[in-house]
């Protein structure tokens, strides 16, 4: 079975032109079939504030009201996505930028709270289905899909969706076609045992160790959704999941850097 590398790029890398270009050059050099999923960085927040649209964040997650949805769609699916595609073309990777609405690539539904006092995140989507056959056709045509974190509900409504979850969902769906490697890349060296010590990278985390780390509150809260997605991917057939620094992408892919996620 051929390998497919799915990389999610996020964090401060998306906001730093130099770091992003270095990452994209490295990504373009990956020999295997590949898909890139990107986050939005801080540009959407800055633009919304410039336009007088108040931004609300709860536990690091954006409340996406109707006006904010317009901004994140313009920024994520427009400027950031097409800028990344243009850079990848420059580096020799023939790329195509997508949202979840294109070719019904990623179908989702508006998040609904299960408790009476649950937070209403607005137009935030939880994923129902990935059109794996569509992604496979693009790959077979030697195209590199570049996926922005915008999905749709099949009824005409766009939704803002967590990019880590999109990457996990695509990796899981594509594991029926390929031996799939999922890489979460950002500015940190990996999952840190001490958030204040950049060298405290945990090389391997299995599910039992993860539960211990969470119980002892040794995992930075912002890392938990990424790790949750990583373990879902492993449990659902993704061959390998690695979390680490975007500047070490080639080493991450072969498991020689960052944090490797394992069932255990």
Describe, in plain words, how this protein is organized in 3D.
This protein starts with a strand and ends with a strand. The model has no long low-confidence stretch (mean pLDDT 93). The chain has one domain: Acetylglutamate kinase-like (Carbamate kinase, 3-Layer(aba) Sandwich), CATH 3.40.1160.10. Helix content is 35%, strand content 25%. By secondary structure, the chain is an alpha/beta fold. It has an 8-stranded mixed β-sheet, sandwiched between helices. The radius of gyration is 18 Å and the shape is globular. Helix 2 (43-50) packs across helix 3 and helix 5 packs parallel to helix 7 (224-235).
Task: Record the SSE blueprint.
Elements: E1 3-9, H1 17-28, E2 33-38, H2 43-50, E3 56-58, E4 61-63, H3 66-90, E5 95-98, E6 106-110, E7 125-130, H4 132-140, E8 144-147, E9 150-152, E10 158-160, H5 163-174, E11 179-186, E12 204-206, H6 207-215, H7 224-235, E13 240-245, H8 249-253, E14 259-262
Parallel strand pairs: 1-2, 1-11, 2-8, 5-8, 11-13, 12-14
Antiparallel strand pairs: 3-4, 6-7, 9-10, 13-14
Helix pairs in contact: 2-3, 5-7
> Beta-strand level of the residues, as a percent range?
15-25%
The description of the largest β-sheet is: 8 strands, mixed
From the N-terminal CA to the C-terminal CA, the straight-line distance is 24 Å
In CATH, what is the class?
Alpha Beta
In which range does the helix fraction lie? 25-40%
- Given the helix and strand composition, which structural class is it? alpha/beta
Q: Please report the total strand number as a whole number.
A: 14
Rg = 18 Å
Kindly give the count of domains.
Answer: 1
Q: What is the CATH superfamily label?
A: Acetylglutamate kinase-like
CATH-level-2 architecture: 3-Layer(aba) Sandwich
Element-by-element helix/strand order? EHEHEEHEEEHEEEHEEHHEHE
Major sheet: order of its strands? 5-8-2-1-11-13-14-12
Could you report the average pLDDT, rounded to the nearest whole number? 93
Which consecutive residue ranges, at least 5 long each, have pLDDT under 50? none
Q: What is the CATH third-level topology name?
A: Carbamate kinase
Number of helices: 8
- Shape descriptor reads globular
């Amino acid at each position: 079975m051929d390998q497919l590398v799915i990389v999610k790029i996020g964090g401060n890398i998306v906001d730093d032109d130099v770091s992003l270009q270095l990452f994209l050059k490295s990504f373009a050099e990956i020999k295997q079939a590949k898909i890139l999923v990107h986050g939005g960085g801080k540009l959407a927040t800055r633009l919304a504030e410039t336009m007088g649209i108040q931004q609300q964040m709860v536990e690091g997650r954006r409340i996406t009201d109707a006006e904010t949805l317009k901004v994140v769609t313009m920024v994520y699916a427009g400027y950031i996505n097409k800028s990344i595609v243009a850079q990848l073309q420059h580096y020799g990777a023939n790329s195509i930028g997508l949202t979840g609405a294109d070719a019904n690539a990623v179908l989702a539904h508006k998040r609904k709270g299960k408790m009476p006092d649950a937070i209403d995140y607005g137009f935030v989507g939880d994923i129902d289905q990935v059109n794996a056959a569509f992604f496979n056709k693009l790959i077979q045509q030697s195209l590199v899909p570049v996926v922005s974190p915008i999905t749709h509900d099949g009824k005409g409504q766009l939704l803002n969706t967590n990019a880590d979850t999109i990457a996990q969902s695509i990796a899981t769906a594509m594991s029926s076609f390929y031996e799939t490697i999922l890489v979460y890349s950002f500015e940190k060296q990996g999952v840190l045992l001490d958030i204040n010590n950049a060298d405290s990278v945990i090389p391997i985390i299995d599910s039992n160790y993860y539960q211990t780390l969470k119980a002892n509150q040794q995992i930075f809260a912002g890392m938990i959704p990424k790790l949750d997605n990583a373990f879902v991917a492993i449990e659902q057939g993704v061959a390998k999941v690695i979390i680490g620094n975007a500047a070490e992408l080639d080493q991450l892919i072969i498991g020689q850097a960052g944090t490797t996620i394992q069932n255990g």
